[in-house]
Design goal:
With 106 residues, the protein is mainly α. It has helices at 2-16, 32-44, 70-79, 91-104; strands at 50-51, 56-57. The protein has a single domain, classed as Cytochrome Bc1 Complex, Chain D, domain 2 (Orthogonal Bundle), CATH 1.10.760.10. It is built from four helices and two strands, in the order ααββαα. Helix 3 (70-79) packs across helix 4 (91-104).
């Protein structure tokens, strides 16, 4: 009887989603330019930075789920503050990543 009660409790907790901390994702329409930025972000930035839309959960760098302006993201990419390497992207690739982060954090 006790095992059945425990089993029922486990099923109810699983159905309720307890233990998960992921916020529900909202749908973001990305331009092709922003989509290329997302691909670059996931490949080069996601291991350090958490960004919900990208599905990344890096812990070494700053969490990026609050609003960011593309111009500020480009500055950060160029300067590489803290342990982040400076100039990780340049030119159009930096602009694509910056546009994506700005779109994903609106």
């Amino acid at each position: 009887m006790r095992a059945a009660s425990l089993g029922a409790a486990v099923v109810l907790l699983a159905l309720a989603g307890c233990g998960g901390s992921a916020a529900p994702r909202r749908h973001i329409h990305l331009t092709p330019f922003e989509q290329r930025g997302k691909t670059l972000f996931v490949g080069a930035c996601g291991s350090c930075h958490t960004l919900a839309d990208a599905g990344t959960s890096g812990m070494a760098g700053r969490e990026l789920n609050s609003p960011w302006l593309a111009a500020r993201v480009r500055e950060v990419i160029a300067d590489g503050p803290g342990g982040m390497p400076a100039g990780l992207f340049s030119g159009e690739r930096a602009a694509e990543v910056a546009a994506y982060v700005a779109a994903a954090t609106k």
